[in-house]
C-alpha cells in the first residue's frame, strides 16, 4: 500500500472514530485479530525501529567525532612534515659545512703547537664546542620530528580505518532501520479501517490509564517547579517545533527524531548534550520524577531508546515515532525509565511563563494530526553525512 493510501486510510479511521464513540462492539476487529495483540505487536515494532534508529544515531555521532579527529591529525601531520623538512635542511647544511671544512683542518694538537696565540686557540675551541652542541641539537630535533611525523601518520591511518568501519556499521544500521520500518508498514497496510480505529481508541485508553496511575501514585509529586533560564529556552525551542514530522536520524530544522529534538532544544539553550537517548541517560544527571522541572528530559523503555522534554503539569513534548509529528503528550505515554537534567547547577527562575501552545499541540499523529496510526515510507531516511574522500 502506498504512503498516500495508508495516510488516507488512517484519516478515514480517525474520522469514523470522531463521528462514533468507539466501543468494544462497534470497533471490533476482524475475527481472529485481537486489537490488544495488534497494538502490542505494533508498539513492539515501533520500539525496535527506534532502537535501531538510536544505534544509527550513535554511529553517526562517533563517525563525526572521528572525522574531526582525522582533520586535527591531518593538520598536525602537515605541520610535523614542515618541521621535519626544515630540520632536514638544517642538518644537510651542517653536513655540507663539515665536509667542506674537513679538507684543510689540522689536528687540534698540531694547531695548538703551531699557534702563536694559545688563548685565541682556546677561544676557537670554545666556539667549536658551541657549534658541536648546535649540531647535536639539530640532529636531536630532526630525530624527534621524524618520530613525531611517523606517530601522527600511524594515528591518521588508524583514524581512516576506524572511519571505514563506522561507515560500514552505519550502512548496516540504516538497512536495519529501513527493514524495521517496512515491517511496520506491512502491518499497517494489512489493517482494516475498523482495526485502525480500534487501535487508536485502545492506545488512547492505555495512555490515559497509565497517566492516571502515575498521577495517583504520587511519583510526580505535587510541587510546581520553574525551569532555569536555559531550561526555559529549551522548552521554547521544543514547543516551537510542534507539528514538524518525525524522520529517523533527523535533528532539524525541518524534522526530528526523539533525541534529535531534545539535543537540539538544549543546543539552542546554549548547552551541548549527547546526541542519543542512551547517552543522554548515561551521561546527564539523573533525578527522581518528583523533582522534575520544565526542560528536564524524560527517558523511556528499559534500553533508554526514547526521550522527551518535560513541559510541566505531567506533560512532555516529543517526536513520538515514524509517521507522527512533534506533539505534546502525557508523560506516561510510554513506559518510563527515569529522568535526567542537563543543567543540574542552574538556578530556577523566580518567575516563569510557559510558552503558549497551539490548539492542536496534542494531535501530532499523521499528516493532519487526525489519526494515531498512519503510513509512512521506509525511504524517509536521512541522507548519510559526507565522509572523508581519503
TrEMBL record:
- State if DNA-binding is listed as a keyword: no
Task: Keywords in alphabetical order, please.
Answer: Coiled coil, Hydrolase, Protease, Signal, Thiol protease
Query: Which positions are tagged coiled coil?
Result: 139-194
| PROSITE patterns associated with the record | NLPC_P60 (PS51935)
Which domain of life does the protein's organism represent? Bacteria
Give all residue intervals belonging to the NlpC/P60 domain: 228-349
Q: Which InterPro entries match?
A: NLP_P60_dom, Papain-like_cys_pep_sf, PG_Endopeptidase_C40
What spans are recorded as compositionally biased (Low complexity)? Answer: 373-382
Instruction: Note whether tRNA processing occurs among the keywords.
Output: no
Chain positions covered by the region annotation Disordered: 342-390
Leader sequence residues: 1-27
Member of which family? Belongs to the peptidase C40 family.
Name recorded for this polypeptide: NlpC/P60 family protein
Organism, scientific name: Streptomyces antimicrobicus
